[in-house]
Amino acid sequence: MNRYLLRPLMAAVCAATLPASGFYQQPSANPAAEAGTGHKVVSRLPGDMLAQFSDSLEQLASKASRAVVQIEVSGFGPAEEGGSEADPRSERGRKNTAVIVRQHAIGSGVIVDPDGYIMTNAHVVEGAQRIRVALWLPPATFDPVTSPGNVQVLNAKVIGLQKEVDLALLKVEASSLPTLHFRLDAAQPGELVFAIGSPGGLQNSVSMGVISSAWRQPNPDNPMVYLQTDAPINPGNSGGPLVDVTGAVVGLNTFILSSSGGSEGLGFAIPARVVDFVYQSLRKYGHVYRTEIGAVAQTITPAIAEGLGLAQKWGVVIADVAPHGPADTAGIRPEDVLLAIDGHPVLTLLAFTAALYQHSPDQVLRIDVLRGAQKVSFIVPAMLARDHMSQLADVADPMKSHIGPLGILGLDFNDELRSLLPDVRIATGVIVIGQAPGFNSVNTGLQVGDVIHSLNRTTVESVDQLKSSVAQLKPGDAAVLRIERRGQFQYLAFEME
After folding, report:
1. Catalytic residue check, 166
2. Fewer CB within 10 Å: C terminus or N terminus of the chain?
């Protein structure tokens, strides 16, 4: 930070947080006159203000850090050609799929429920064979030298993943844990924030910066938008919280843009509103439903604008409205030009998708459109978009479909299911329709939609057969599943627990 900006920044923060008696006041040009008024003349050195500011930050860091955990992951996966887990979208993060190596990674997470629910990034735990969470226990005294505190390490299970947004929900067996809460209103550019995590494995590291942008879309082909911050973020920070001056979580740190592999002031965090939505969905369902309004949008081209007589030649136009759907009921019509959703401008089709994704399905949307030359606003109820796998998971009999040691829900792959997945190359096996991890289950790496064809070279044709084969394995035995994922065969190897 520019040193000439430091003192005004500190003064501004102190003015917002400290009592008036703590302010520094310039000496009066006429102290005798002031003395005659009976008013007390207060003089406080700038160093005192900085000390109070420092104390406030120290208390904030101490309180917030108690709810931040270090996540240690081990498993097998493709070797990376340089890069880091904190920068999975950079050129340095390319994977060499021809080389499979044992991987050890460290990330961060934030405790969001005192009963042991932890949010982190999906890329931190994806494919993990074992996940351990290190909880920091504060020292018994306030002297970190004589009483540095200690660390409690617990095994964690994955409750659910949402790879599109890069979020995962973990669970540890613990209670009465310290937590941080999500701040659901939007952070603002220039706002002071703090990144807490384990960069390089250094647990409970705190860095400070500001919100550089509250609505950043780094990848034009991905509708996700992020908070951009210049708070230093490095490998190991992934999954840790970005908190404001009150200790509320405004985002979850997820990646950096870097040419060196280290922080260059371009860090990105998933907005807290998105994290909270995904958390609620993963905890309740084990997966995430998308929000829809029953309308199809399309990018406006000059030809479309001219042919339809639209008032502008850019942006997004409604191309179709589902009969009796939320948009239709609210009054939205084809040829309406989208202006904003929930107050956020909609200039591109990706912005339209992002706005729907970030919206909670139990709240109405405010949608502003341009109809002809007139601006019109609508209140539109949201609905949950559910894919076939989610519907199968909801109607499946848990007693029959649950394969406890593997932590999944499965169904026999039959002709009816084949119509949902026409690209499956072998028409028999067990299809994974949901995640149902327990504390006696192993992290297999299975994903919803995978079709299991064999276990240790024994063909699998039904859920009952898979359960029987798994039951014959003892703790420590090697297990190799041959699965089909998106039309390709692969092996998943792990040890039974």
Report:
1. yes
2. N
